[in-house]
Design goal:
With about 280 residues, the protein is mainly α. It has 7 helices and 5 strands.
Length: about 280
């Protein structure tokens, strides 16, 4: 891509200089048509020397020799854009299919409830540790959705809206399935946590200064998981091994003159964990 950009600049400068010089010196000969096209070098014959033709009658390049320039808002050619959008769409479908398969096997394989029901699961044994997991999930679903759409040259506003809607719809379907099984139920507490994470991701794109704070997670296997104390225990439910952090990029919030003196690898973080 750097080579392509250099060529584009050179062509624009060359065309402008050529046109300006021709007008300044009032030279005879063909006039450059308005606009700029880039071709593969195979073009029609120019008129004989000294013959002046209007721009509309100048021979144009063969249609199959035209090469489209990337737009200023998207650094991809049409062919590249099609390939990227196909890849992003396939990634969305593939990841969603895998996550649905995982959730169905891990959670939605128990006894079904006689009817759809709601369950407010505040302050259970896990002390709301899973709510941080829901928040982090909503945050990353919206964040990666936005990055994928922007990489496919979707406008910023549309990418923000669609990534937020995607994250909300994905996590809503999880709660709808939970509401059909006795062990879980539809949790509005989970929905609050989901929405909090999604909203944070959206706000960080609208207000870049908020990116100074990043939610993240660290994990280590607990003795209970290593010893196989419970057949149902797995990393996603091993709450005592999970720590959820709000990690602050200190350099980003310091006055501009002091930022070079703060080591980038030192961050101020606050975490939440549970024991036993």
């Amino acid at each position: 891509m750097p080579h392509i950009k250099c060529c584009v600049v050179a062509l624009i400068v060359g065309a402008t200089a050529g046109t300006t010089g021709a007008r300044a010196q009032e030279l005879s000969g063909p006039v450059f048509p308005e606009g700029l096209s880039v071709t593969n070098g195979i073009e029609g014959d120019l008129p004989a020397s000294g013959v002046q033709l209007p721009a509309s009658l100048l021979p144009l390049p063969a249609v199959d020799s035209l090469v489209a320039l990337p737009k200023s808002t998207c650094p991809l050619t049409p062919g590249q854009l099609t390939a990227v959008r196909t890849g992003v769409a396939s990634g969305f479908v593939g990841v969603n299919a895998y996550l649905y398969h995982y959730f169905k096997k891990a959670w939605w394989s128990g006894e079904r409830a006689p009817r759809f029901f709601f369950h407010a699961d505040w302050d259970q044994q896990f002390r709301d540790q899973d709510k941080f997991g829901h928040m982090l999930g909503g945050y990353h679903l919206a964040r990666f959705g936005y990055l994928g759409l922007r990489g496919a040259c979707v406008g910023k506003t549309k990418a923000i809206i669609w990534s937020g809607a995607y994250a909300a719809a994905f996590q809503l379907q999880i709660e709808i399935f939970d509401g059909q099984f006795k062990k879980y139920g539809f949790s509005y507490a989970d929905m609050i946590a989901n929405t909090t994470g999604q909203t944070l991701a959206v706000l960080q794109e609208v207000y870049p200064s908020l990116r100074a704070v990043k939610p993240t997670v660290s994990y280590h296997k607990t003795r209970a998981l290593r010893s196989g104390m419970s057949a149902e225990l797995r990393p996603s439910l091993d709450y005592a091994g999970q720590t959820y952090w709000f990690s602050t990029d200190v350099a980003r919030i310091l006055p501009e003159g002091t930022r070079p003196y703060w080591p980038d690898f030192i961050r101020f973080s606050v975490g939440q964990c549970v024991t036993d």
